[in-house]
Amino acid sequence: MLQNRSELLFLYDVQWANPNGDPVDENKPRIDEETGRNIVTDVRLKRTIRDYLHDFCHQEIFVREIAGENEYIQDAKTRAEDFLVKDGKKLDKSKLSLAEMKQIINEEILRQCIDVRLFGVTLPIEKNSKEKSSITHTGPVQFKMGQSLHAVKLEYIKGTGAFASGSRMMQKTFREEYVLPYSLIAFYGVINEAAASYTKLTEEDVQLLLDAMWNGTKNLISRSKVGQIPRLLLRVVYKEKHFHIGELDKYISLHSEKVDEEIRDVSDYTLDTAPLIRAMEKQKEKIERVEIKTDDRLVCSEDIIESLKTAGIPVEIK
């Protein structure tokens, strides 16, 4: 079982893409109107992680789209009953009490579903129309909304579709979309050891999470996401109980000769990591180790790995 708290800092970038469209605003990339910075929801990142864990790592996840024989998509109640099993056999809920149903489903979901151990869950349990309850687990892994480290430019693109809008039409339809020429997005997260004890999160689960953050982002090869590249993944593991530095994303910034909206590539700036390294150095007695993975094209103000080692902080390169 996971014993120590840790913090996560994850950077990735996109070029001429839409990292997280807003369905209530023409699917435009989400932008903070006050700062001009791009916003990506934690739900988007968790979807990326879940899909990679399921499709590439062959891990069971609870939150996924499953259609029945009639092609209707399962609701949460039906999905929960997929885990009403014992020794691999489906149980008849009419022969169980509501309390027994909850216990069996809870144990099976925590045993089988890595996304529940990571992110928690709230799911309805229903024996019949009169006997209903629910199961709730707070996720040990929580991310803030992702935010670009610079103001972005929104581009509107209009093109010609392949087909006419209807029969007996001479003209093809038009397609419209909004993209960002460039966005370097930072996600900050915490892995809470107290919540982990309830969802039975393990260190092996956390290593799969890190793999999914990096490789899931890179392998999200859809038309709107192709070209996403992970640039930096850092995990600070603490040895002091119930302690973390907090908001690691506020200790980094971009330095560029270009104005924010003109940045088009990772080579257009330097990532200033000095405040982050100084913050960790200040708390080094409370840090067990730092796990880190970097992309070769990312240029930082100083060598993070060597600086941490010089400060006496154990470093594990991923």
From TrEMBL:
GO terms for biological process: maintenance of CRISPR repeat elements. NCBIfam families: cas_Csh2, cas_CT1132. InterPro entries: Cas7_Csh2/Csh2 (IPR006482), CRISPR-assoc_prot_Cas7/Csh2 (IPR013419). It holds the Pfam family Cas_Cas7. This is Type I-B CRISPR-associated protein Cas7/Csh2.
